[in-house]
What we know:
By secondary structure, the protein is an alpha/beta fold.
Amino acid sequence: MNPIxxxxxxxxxxxxxxxxxxxxxxxxxxxVVGLIGGSGEGKSVLLKHAAGLMxxxxxxxxxxxxxxxxxxxxxxxxxxxxxxxxFQNGALFDSLSVYExxxxxxxxQGLGEQEIRERIRTVLGHVGLExxxxxxxxxxxxxxxxxxxxxxxxxxxxxxxxFDEPTTGLDPLIVRTIHNLIHSCQRELNYAGIIVTxxxxxxxxxxxxxxxxxxxxxxxxxxxxxxxxxxxxxxxxFIDSATMTEDxxxxxxxxxxxxxxx
Length: 262
Ligand SMILES: Nc1ncnc2c1ncn2[C@@H]1O[C@H](COP(=O)(O)OP(=O)(O)OP(=O)(O)O)[C@@H](O)[C@H]1O
């Protein structure tokens, strides 16, 4: 099987800082990759390349084998129709209701009102926000805002989902709820994707693969089990410091919940 998304030897310098230095990562259809790494290592920058929001200085991003930077306008639009992006801050429009925010991407696609209504009912059901359609973002709690942003990212029934720290700033209970939602939506919609996160080890229960970004490259790529068993001292130290407060039961609980997701 060929990757749905391939980041190939991507280099990117921003304001003189070499952020990406040959990053390579493949995402297979229906597989979700957890992208981990230290703060400032370039995880969000890598995700923006995957979304076509940043162009590599060198290297390529391929979607179904097509180089993203060489797509015609029409093909780029059809790539965006297949893509859902959950931004770190949710990026909802303050003056638009939940309904208007979520349906925004569909209106750009020109779907009819009946289909829009059916889709919003499905997606609001997935994220548990039924009945909040008329509220403004300012009337929602942090967890509800994330759910609304997730609903907006899912409304096009994307084949590829990119999540940039979907649970940052939320309390542990809501983090678990959002993780469960991401997991159940993935099982339902079967998308492939990348989740940038600091939630270790919780992320290992959500993803099929883990990629560790270090010094501008993917230093490790493997299953959550392989992370657990790694002998790489740098990854080991990173994981150990991130899980210092977690007991081994939690670790094994996380590995146990990862059942393929696809
Ligand atoms: N648009 C930009 N212009 C200039 N520098 C940028 C830009 N975006 C990111 N950077 C820089 O690139 C580096 C990597 O940033 P990035 O946000 O990708 O890190 P990260 O791994 O996602 O970090 P964190 O986990 O803390 O969110 C940082 O030094 C950041 O300041």
